[in-house]
TrEMBL record:
Keywords: Cytoplasm. This is Dbl homology domain-containing protein. Its main location: cytoplasm. InterPro entries: DBL_dom_sf, DH_dom, Endocytic_GEF_Adapter, GDS_CDC24_CS.
Length: 440
């Protein structure tokens, strides 16, 4: 299954949102301190410009006559009934003030306004509301990781004057700090748009489209995530300085009885949720509406960026598999199996598909091959021979045992192909030059 191909079966056309505790607003000093960290991030290959406020954050065109009519009808009803107007005031979801619990958009606005909207526009407002609300919740979780875990751990390192955070976990922490800075900007822009256009938000796709490139920075996070969790678990198990610090901070009431490993999963979960939210927004956006083209462009760009992130993760995982396999093969010499653009296809018994051996299984015990046409050549039993197939080479190896983790170990039977020069193409290792000769 594709990394970003999951679907949320509980997602409805009408979106509900989870419980949200009161957020802690970021101070000017904290924002300045966070912005100073930008110089240490090396996720992008070129310098970037981060506008603190989107240029269109407070203005957007109003061309949807349906929304205008709904607002006009609602205002007319309010004017005709002053008591109703006093009892039912329009409430805008404010992420920078007290948040209401278990709310959806229709619970935060006048009931007459909801009654004057079409089902499609009602669903659209619910999706817009969820995007803005969940973005704020994501920033809240990132800030918790930064303030409750990362900063105290960095302080311990400064006092001890030596690093206590393992390599992969340190890269994850750096990514969290970067995500916090960027998504605070995005969330602030979304909140300003919501306030400027309340109670009916007309568009947010232009804001997200301006920052969609940010998601490319999630590739290093996904690449180092699994190893970082192993390092974290090992530190907690050993009860070293890092492990003791993490256990202590997890007892904070702000953590809501959740361990650090759960919070480190938040960026991955958020990355998976964006395509679903944008797809739902596109379904609810009228093709004749002014925001339709921007929403289509946002979905296209987001899919491209996330596909690139997925490809980077897949290439890294494949390279790690090749490195692990290379360590289990004796006789490779200077030849490197783990190189870029090489894909491991399979490692399997060499003669499992032979028709002769299927008809006469007893031949597996007696049939042998020789590694070279020389008097000193060694004979190898067919039942222990395995092929290691990649997209550009095929190696023949003899199984010699297993590792402590249960993976097979091999000794190379065929000659390793010569290592090509940098400017030479990598050729497929064909059978006629494999150096393996079958004994009749």
């Amino acid at each position: 299954m594709s990394l970003f191909g999951r679907r949320d079966s509980s997602q409805k056309n009408r979106v509900s949102t989870p419980t949200t505790p009161t957020p802690t607003p970021i101070t000017t000093e904290e924002a300045h301190h966070t912005s100073n960290k930008m110089s240490s991030f090396k996720f992008l290959s070129k310098s970037i410009h981060i506008p603190l406020l989107h240029k269109n954050a407070k203005t957007a065109p109003v061309k949807d006559s349906t929304l205008q009519n709904a607002l006009a009808n609602t205002q007319q009803r309010k004017n005709s009934n002053s008591l109703s107007n006093l009892r039912r005031q329009t409430i805008v979801h404010r992420t920078d003030n007290v948040c209401r619990r278990n709310t959806i958009w229709s619970d935060t606005v006048d009931v007459d306004l909801v009654a004057n909207l079409s089902p499609r526009e009602l669903n659209r407002q619910e999706v817009l509301f969820e995007i803005i609300k969940t973005e704020h919740e994501y920033v809240r979780d990132l800030r918790l990781i930064e303030e409750i875990f990362i900063q105290p751990i960095k302080q311990i390192e400064e006092k001890s004057r030596k690093p206590i955070v393992p390599t992969n976990l340190n890269k994850i922490f750096n990514s969290i700090s970067y995500f916090l800075f960027i998504h605070e900007v995005i969330s602030n822009c979304l909140n300003e748009r919501q306030e400027a256009q309340s109670p009916l938000v007309r568009s947010i796709s232009d804001i997200l489209l301006a920052y969609v490139w940010v998601f490319r920075a999630y590739a290093p996070y996904l690449i180092h995530y699994e190893e970082a969790l192993r390092e974290l678990d090992e530190s907690i198990r050993k009860k070293d300085k890092l492990g003791r610090a993490v256990k202590k901070q997890q007892k904070s009431t702000s953590c809501r009885n959740m361990p650090l490993s759960t919070y480190l999963l938040k960026p991955f979960q958020r990355l998976l949720k964006y395509p679903l939210l944008i797809s739902n927004l596109l379904k609810c956006t009228d093709k004749e509406g002014f925001d339709y083209e921007n929403t289509v462009a946002l979905k296209t760009k987001l899919d491209d960026v996330l596909s690139d992130v997925e490809e980077q993760k897949r290439d890294h995982d494949n390279l790690e598999r090749l490195r692990e396999l290379e360590a289990r093969i004796a006789g490779l010499g200077p030849y490197r199996l783990a190189v870029n653009n090489r894909q491991l296809l399979k490692e399997s018994p060499a003669c499992q598909n032979s028709l002769s051996l299927k008809k006469q299984p007893s031949l597996r015990k007696t049939l042998t091959v020789t590694s070279a046409p020389a008097p000193t050549s060694k004979r190898h039993s067919v039942r222990n021979l395995y092929t290691i197939e990649c997209n550009d080479i095929v190696l023949l190896a003899e199984r010699t045992g297993v590792t402590n983790e249960g993976h097979p170990t091999y000794k190379l039977v065929s000659r390793p192909p010569p290592t090509p020069l940098d400017d030479e193409p990598v050729l497929v290792h064909k059978a006629d030059d494999s150096g393996v000769y079958y004994d009749d």
